């Protein structure tokens, strides 16, 4: 009878080790993704090195679902640059083009006016009440490149949150039940 209890304990120990290994692997995958994201933030100089175009306001240049790669350096922002702006009090950044740059000589400050290529009016209607220009602090980054339609998964998950939870659960389950 002693060998049966030893075998049961041995099987329990193996299963515990396998489960622990799978949880550690899941943790490493998540940690790796965070480290890559933070590394990209350092390299590009922006808090968000990658964004997804959420609306049709920049068509035909950028389509809904395109992924934009951003950077921010010491080069001046000029009219014609495509930027991602974050307006105070709004959660979702906006991808639009700078149409005017206003440099105040007395204060050495620079102000920007943006507009979506597909929009009839400039973005003053999107800015906060009484705000006519953006400051540098509102600009998250300039577009450095894009990947067409690669962000559709993000769009689908933001419009249908249940899809996000199903995919996250399926991914976690896959990591936990994989043997290698």
Describe it for me?
Pfam families: Peptidase_S24. InterPro entries: LexA/Signal_pep-like_sf, Peptidase_S24_S26A/B/C, Peptidase_S26, Peptidase_S26B. This protein has 180 residues and is of the alpha+beta class. The chain has helices spanning 2-44, 152-159, 161-177, and strands at residues 50-52, 67-71, 82-85, 94-104, 109-115, 139-147. The protein contains 3 helices and 6 strands; from the N terminus they run αββββββαα. It has a 6-stranded antiparallel sheet. A hairpin with an 8-residue loop joins β3 (82-85) and β4. It folds into 2 domains: 2-45 and 162-177, no CATH class; 50-149, Umud Fragment, subunit A.
Quick summary:
The chain contains three helices and six strands.
Provide tags for this entry.
180 residues; alpha+beta; Umud Fragment, subunit A; six-stranded antiparallel β-sheet; 38% helix; 22% strand
């Amino acid at each position: 009878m002693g060998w049966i209890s030893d075998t049961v304990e041995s099987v329990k120990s193996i299963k515990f080790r396998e489960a622990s290994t799978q949880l550690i692997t899941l943790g490493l995958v998540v940690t790796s993704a965070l480290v890559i994201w933070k590394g990209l933030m350092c390299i590009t100089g922006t808090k968000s090195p990658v964004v997804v175009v959420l609306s049709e306001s920049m068509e035909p240049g950028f389509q809904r679902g395109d992924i934009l790669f951003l950077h921010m350096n010491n080069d001046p922002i000029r009219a014609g640059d495509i930027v991602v702006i974050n307006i105070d009090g709004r959660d979702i950044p906006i991808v639009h083009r700078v149409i005017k740059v206003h440099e105040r000589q007395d204060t050495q400050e620079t102000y920007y006016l943006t507009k979506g290529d597909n929009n009839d009016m400039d973005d003053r209607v999107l800015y906060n009440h009484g705000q006519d220009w953006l400051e540098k602090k509102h600009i998250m980054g300039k577009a450095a490149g894009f990947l067409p339609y690669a962000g559709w998964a993000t769009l689908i998950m933001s419009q249908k949150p249940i899809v996000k939870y199903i995919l996250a659960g399926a991914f976690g389950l896959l990591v936990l039940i994989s043997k290698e």
